[in-house]
Amino acid sequence: MDSKEKEPDKAYIYLIGNPSYNDVCLSAWDSVLYPGTPVVYQTKFGLDLGVVLGSAPDRNRHYEPGCTSVQGASCSSSCQMKEPELMEVGSIDYIDHLATPKEMAKYEREKAREEDALRVCREKVLEHKLDMKLVTAHFMLAEPKIIFFFTADSRVDFRDLVKDLGAVFRLRIELRQIGVRDESRLIGGLSVCGRDYCCHLFQSQMDPVTIKMAKEQNLSLSSMKISGPCGRLLCCLNYEYEYYLEEKASYPPEGTRLKIGHELWKVTEVNILSHKIAVLGSEARSMYIPISEIHYDSESGYWNVSQEFQEDMLS
Fold first, then answer.
1. pTM more than 0.70
2. Domain residue spans in the chain?
3. Does the pLDDT at position 93 exceed 60?
């Protein structure tokens, strides 16, 4: 569609993935498309080849506290993507057109050239003595442009490098500096769990991960155990963080004093997986109490242990 005026208010909206730099976005089309359909669409770098991943998820669907249908990185049958249906387009860009066999052949040819382009660029980087690490190269499908992605510890003056590369390839040259997490997202690899990197496999954006997430989940704070191959905190620390916060709200916090019999015991550990808390008493005595035996008294503001549990323990 050449003009925005010709585009309808409603269309089918799809998730489009870019196989070259692992980008995912929403795009619209006026008819039903099936997963795996190659298309040419507007990316943040220009017109390029993409693949339909599926219909857009329901924007009104969100996680509700207590929901148990989410299973790891996927959902149960009640959470799966719906069949394509007409939706309000809004500010979503339209797919430019369906990729032709000729364009697919061009994409394969250009992809075969990317390794050589990367080698040439590395040689030029050495010639100019630039402190940068090249990650990958990509020839745009619908524009006369090649993009080089690189990492660096600081800003790099690559103006002379761009001139040399332009003379070699006779194309527009674009250099993009990325972070180490983005590098992992581009090239992929096996993480500590034995599966492909989450950022490369399915994540559409790089969400922030903090050490607080590991603390809330009672995980080891050793950087070797909670860091990925990129050297940053594991993305998966973010997956269950909200669930832990939600569950811990119904547990007494660590450090809370509980009166059992005539003695005060201190909560030293909260384990939402076993549904128990660990408490420490005098003379280094310790025990575990099921959360079902503890309740919060909103009037007094104290956590109390059930009388039945106290009688069983003291008998």
1. yes
2. 4-99, 103-178, 181-245, 257-314
3. yes
